[in-house]
Structure prediction request, 459 residues.
Amino acid sequence: MSCPTTDHELTAYLDGELDLTSTLEFERHLEDCPSCARGLAAQRALREAIGAADLRFRPTSVQTRRLRNAMAATPGEHAALRLPSWRGLQAIAALLLVAVASWSLGRLWPPRTGPDLSEQVVSSHVRSLLAGHPADVISTDQHTVKPWFTGKLDYSPNVVDLASQGFPLVGGRLDYLGNHPVAALVYRADRHVINLFIWPAAYTPDGAGPEPVATTRQGFHLLHWTQGGMTYWAVSDAGEERLRQLARLLRSS
Amino acid sequence: MASYATIEAETATADPVEMLTKIRDRLFRQDSRRARFEQAVLPHLDAAYDLARWLTRNDHDAEDVVQTASLRALQFFDGFHGTNARAWLLTIVRNSFYSWLQKQNRGHEIGDPFDEDIHSSEDGSVPAPDTELLRQADRRVLRLGFESLPLPYREVMVLRELEGLSYKEIAEIAGIPIGTVMSRLARARRHLQDFLIAQGVKEGRR
Prediction:
């Protein structure tokens, strides 16, 4: 029997890369063409075997550390790789002086907390996902998580489980943001992880009001508000609407 | 980006406080450039290693290639304005690998030993593969099968089957048309099926 359908179409169909019309056409064709149906079954079996075997190579933790260290040790600029000239050395000396001076000045002129802090919040969120264990204390019980912070922080964050409203509590951990140790609560929303950071508003007086303010950064959504003298930052790749829901629930609890 | 001399030149001003402010902002921008880079690239280090490991076929060379690639990525980060950091990084990993391969004088590995005729099924004579045998293929045999693929086929299979990239992303990474991605995947899968069935026969599982 002659079949005009090529392996290519079969492959693209398997990968979900055919457009709608071609997909429908191909599915009609499959019904009448046992040879293509067998070919597809074989390709599916192969894909199942590959999926089950997980053939990915992952760097060992030692390799990951080496790679990160190599990156951290690189200035990342072409110019800086050249040997410094006398003028360059002068500039470096001047810069060192300036760095010390600006560091001291930085203590007098607190850096604008707005953009800086949201960046730190996103970094911390990403780090918690990368590390693979977002929570130091893993519990869905608010009465386990809340006391865990006692003695670790000089304030007590409000911990509520919102599992029945679609935001199950995963746990909590200590984090360090805006030069202070802060409470991070980890919630789940469907398959997304939400990090909720809570600290006394007095740490970072940035004038955020009780109405949540949304921003996005690197594809992550952030929501920021104050409530009962505490600053709240929620960050996730779940949609902004989900974060707003969480904020509403927390503010009414 | 800027050398120290340019920072000095750009920030030179009569007012020392203004100058300090400018330099401070400038340093802050560089810090945040590094932070942005790490956030964009670090989450994809595992994928980068996976691709490099499959291309080089050993741990040590894979690490070297990923290291070269991540340093290049850091240098060229200012040129990255897209949203797909993973595809961007994998493109650099792939390019770093091919430069490395040339330095090793192993360019011949790029060749394509597949015989067009054997693997073409356009005459419609698709043989009936043993799906049960394929489904039961274990990790060791599958690894051997992937390793037996010539480079141009191995890379598209790794990107598609292991890293789950779309045809469009693969086409951009490998610098080939989408149609070529499709035909390479089709032939690679056919080769793997034949390989697995031959292995199954050898081990008397039939």
Observations:
- Chain B touches chain A through 76 residues (CB under 8 Å).
- The longest helix of chain B spans residues 16-41.
- Chain B has eleven helices and no strands.
- The domain at 111-202 of chain B is CATH 1.10.10.10 (Arc Repressor Mutant, subunit A).
